[in-house]
Amino acid sequence: MLRTILCCLVMLTLSVGCQSKNDNKAKEATITKVDATKGTVAVKMHGEGKDVDKTFKLAERIEYMDSAGDVATADIFTSGDRVLIFESEGTITKMKHKDKAAIAKLPASKDKTDKEAKIANEVFIRAADQINLAEMKIGKVAEENAKSDVVKKFGEKTVHDHSLMNKELRKITTSQGIKLTEKLDPKHQELLDDLTKLKEGAFDKAYTKHMVAGHEKAIELFENEAKTGRDADVKAWAEKCLPTLREHLKLAQAAVKDVKGK
Questions:
Q1: Host domain of residue 33
Q2: How far is CA 175 from the centre of its chain?
Q3: CA Rg, the chain, in Å?
Q4: Which of 99, 139, 221, 258 is the most buried (most CB within 10 A)?
Q5: Distance in angstroms (rounded) separating the CA atoms of residues 117 and 114
Q6: Run of H or E residues at 131
Q7: What does the alpha-carbon distance between residue 238 and residue 224 come to, in Å, rounded to a whole number?
């Protein structure tokens, strides 16, 4: 994503207003060079009588939920006491030029903190919901397409367990006014489509491999929420789900060995 954003900047010239304590008049800044490998943006600051070249380096990336409920990003570049913020949903949509010292002096309002917590909460909820939906749909395919009885039983268990997890999560989201879709996102839908085309031994190998990798990532996601989550209900739900996810991982690893032995 960063490489895409930086490459887009090569074709883009933006002018932004900026001020410092020693300069009350607005200056203009123009992007002159982008280095996707180093993660830097060269900017020419247009002052009165002379131009000043500055190189901004990527300092931080923030993920947030946009108005459509999709995950977007903000890339923060710094140079000395200045900050450039590129907000993007795949292309550059906005560029702000702020004074780093001035930002540091701004009080952290409760409203801002609450908003950030809400965004983080929704990001996790939507990711966890997609995991549940995918496990339910792919597990049903495993019941039909798998050759190994071990794989069939594993698919059946994932359907059962993730259905329960899904019901519990949606009780929480209903109370919080968060609407969730019944459709898989493109990544999970592609996996479902690919696995649906496979039968017996070919399916068993591909399915069990994905189940191991998928549950490893899911456990990492849920562990992070259990440790750092700021919504009590969602955090408790994530903690409750972890033993089941860990059990699924062990069963998936055992299924991989069973498939290889045949």
A1: 2-105
A2: 24
A3: 24
A4: 139
A5: 5
A6: helix 110-145
A7: 9
**Among the residues of 146-231, which ranges form H helices?**
149-176, 186-196, 200-228
What's the angle, vertex CA 8, arms to CA 45 and CA 120, rounded to 5?
95
Q: Which two tokens stand for residue 106?
A: 């701004």
Same domain, 70 and 96: yes
- Are 254 and 150 within one domain? yes
Q: Same domain for 71 and 121?
A: no
List of E strands, 80-146:
82-88, 92-99
Residue range 108-157, pLDDT digits in tens: 444 446 667 777 888 899 999 999 999 999 999 999 999 999 999 999 99
Q: Do you know the residue count of the chain? A: 262
The predicted pLDDT at position 102 comes to 46
Residue of 228, 231, 234 whose CA lies nearest to 165: 234
Q: Is the pLDDT of residue 98 over 80?
A: no
Q: Are residues 90 and 202 in the same domain?
A: no
pLDDT tens column, 35-88: 767 778 787 777 666 777 888 787 776 665 554 555 566 667 777 767 766 655
Pair (70, 124) in one structural domain: no
CA gap 62, 78 in Å, rounded: 14
Please check whether residues 69 and 130 belong to one and the same domain: no
What is the predicted pLDDT for the residue at 40?
81
Tally helices (H) and strands (E) across the chain.
7, 7
